[in-house]
C-alpha cells in the first residue's frame, strides 16, 4: 500500500462497517481507490432478495451467498462486530482498534446470521428439509418477505397447506392498494389461506407445538412456522458512541443529500440505516452506495465539496416475486402482475446481475 501522505485530500483509510448490500458494494467500489477495511460479523455477503428462493431450492444459495474475499480482492476484511466509534477509530468486539480517515456505516437491519458461508448454506438446507417434512406451514407477516416466501412454497410445493397471518388490513402496505389486492388474489388462487388483521403471539408457544392461536381466537394447525415480520435496525450499538446525537427517534442515522451523516465531514451512512424517506430495498441501498462512493473518491483526491453528488429519493418502485414465474410490480405510473414483471425478477431474482455488479461470474457455482 502506498504511503497515505502521498495522497491529496488527507489520508485514504476508509473503514466500512456492515457487509450487506450497501456496505459490500461500496467496499468493492473503493478498494482500488483507497485503503479499505470492511468490518462485518460474517465472512460473506448475501443477496437478500434471493434468500427465500434458497429456502425452497438450497442450491440457489451457492450463487447468492458470496464470500467477501471473492469480490474484496484489494481490501482488508475483519470478521467481527463494531461496538464503538470515536472521531478517528472503530473498536471491534474482540478489542481491535481500526483507524479511519473516512467512515461508512452500513449496518442495515439486525439479522443474526451464521458467521461463515458454509454454516449459512447448511441453514438453508435445514430450512428446506423443514418445509419438505411439513404438510402445513404457517407464515407470520405479510410484508415482502412473508409474501415472497408464501409464493415460493405455494408454487414449489402445491400440495402443502400454507397459511399467512398478517396484522395489517392489506398485504404489502408499502405499495398501493391495487398491487396489494392483486397479490392477495394471486396467493388465494394458489390456495394460500389468508388471515388479515390478526397476529400470533409466539411467546407462549412451546418448541415443537403445532397449534397456534391468532388474536381473533382462531386456531391454526401447522407443522412448522416462519416469522417474517420486520427486523430491528442495526443501530443500537451507536447509542453510546460519538454519533448518538445523529440518530433520529426511530434509531436511523440522519444523513444529508450527499449521504454524509449530518454535521460530519468524513462519516457517511448508506442503506437501511439512513433516515431517507423511501422504502428500504436493496436496490436503493446500491444507489446510496454509488453516490457515497463517488463523493468519497472526490474528497480523497482533494476535490471541492460543492462538486459532490446528490442522492435524490425515488418514488416507490417495487417488484415482489410470486413464485418462479410471476411477480407483482408497482412503478410510478402503473401496477402489473404476472409474467412480465416475473420475467424481470422471479426467474433469477437479479442474482446474475448482482454478481456481475460485484465483478463475479454471474453463473458460477462453487462449494
UniProtKB/TrEMBL annotation:
Pfam families xref list: Pyr_redox_2 (PF07992)
**Any idea what job this protein has?**
Putative FAD-dependent oxidoreductase.
Q: Which Gene3D superfamilies match?
A: 3.50.50.100
Where would I find the FAD/NAD(P)-binding domain in this sequence? 13-288
* Name under which the protein is recorded: FAD/NAD(P)-binding domain-containing protein
Write down the PANTHER family for this protein, in alphabetical order: APOPTOSIS-INDUCING FACTOR 1 (PTHR43735), APOPTOSIS-INDUCING FACTOR HOMOLOG B-LIKE (PTHR43735:SF26)
Coiled-coil stretches noted in the UniProt entry, renumbered to this chain: none
Amino acid at each position: 500500500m502506498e504511503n497515505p501522505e502521498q495522497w491529496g485530500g488527507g489520508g485514504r483509510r476508509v473503514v466500512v462497517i456492515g457487509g450487506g448490500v450497501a456496505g459490500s458494494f461500496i467496499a468493492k467500489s473503493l478498494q482500488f481507490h483507497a485503503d479499505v477495511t470492511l468490518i462485518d460479523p460474517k465472512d460473506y455477503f448475501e443477496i437478500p432478495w434471493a434468500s427465500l428462493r434458497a429456502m425452497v431450492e438450497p442450491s440457489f444459495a451457492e450463487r447468492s451467498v458470496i464470500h467477501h474475499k471473492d469480490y474484496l480482492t484489494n481490501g482488508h476484511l475483519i470478521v467481527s462486530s463494531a461496538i464503538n466509534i470515536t472521531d478517528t477509530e472503530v473498536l471491534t468486539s474482540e478489542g481491535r482498534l481500526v483507524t479511519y480517515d473516512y467512515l461508512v456505516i452500513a449496518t442495515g437491519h439486525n439479522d443474526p446470521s451464521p458467521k461463515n458461508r458454509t454454516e449459512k448454506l447448511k441453514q438453508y438446507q435445514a430450512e428446506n428439509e423443514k418445509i419438505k417434512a411439513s404438510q402445513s406451514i404457517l407464515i407470520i407477516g405479510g410484508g415482502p418477505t412473508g409474501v415472497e416466501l408464501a409464493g415460493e412454497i405455494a408454487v414449489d410445493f402445491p400440495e402443502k397447506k400454507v397459511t399467512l397471518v398478517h396484522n395489517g388490513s392489506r398485504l404489502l402496505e408499502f405499495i398501493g392498494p391495487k398491487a396489494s389486492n392483486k397479490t392477495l388474489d394471486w396467493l388465494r388462487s394458489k390456495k394460500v389461506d389468508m388471515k388479515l388483521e390478526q397476529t400470533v403471539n409466539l411467546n407462549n408457544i412451546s418448541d415443537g407445538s403445532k397449534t397456534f392461536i391468532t388474536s381473533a381466537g382462531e386456531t391454526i394447525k401447522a407443522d412448522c412456522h416462519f416469522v417474517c415480520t420486520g427486523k430491528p435496525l442495526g443501530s443500537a450499538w451507536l447509542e453510546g458512541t460519538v454519533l448518538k446525537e445523529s440518530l433520529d427517534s426511530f434509531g436511523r442515522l440522519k444523513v444529508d443529500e450527499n449521504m454524509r451523516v449530518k454535521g460530519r465531514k468524513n462519516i457517511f451512512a448508506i442503506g437501511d440505516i439512513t433516515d431517507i424517506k423511501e422504502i428500504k430495498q436493496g436496490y436503493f441501498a446500491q444507489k446510496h452506495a454509488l453516490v457515497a462512493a463517488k463523493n468519497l473518491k472526490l474528497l480523497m483526491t482533494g476535490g471541492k465539496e460543492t462538486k459532490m453528488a446528490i442522492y435524490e429519493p425515488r418514488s416507490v418502485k417495487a417488484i415482489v416475486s410470486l413464485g418462479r414465474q410471476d411477480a407483482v410490480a408497482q412503478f410510478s405510473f402503473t401496477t402489473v402482475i404476472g409474467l412480465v414483471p416475473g420475467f424481470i425478477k422471479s426467474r433469477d431474482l437479479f442474482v446474475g446481475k448482482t454478481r456481475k455488479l460485484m465483478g463475479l461470474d454471474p453463473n458460477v457455482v462453487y462449494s
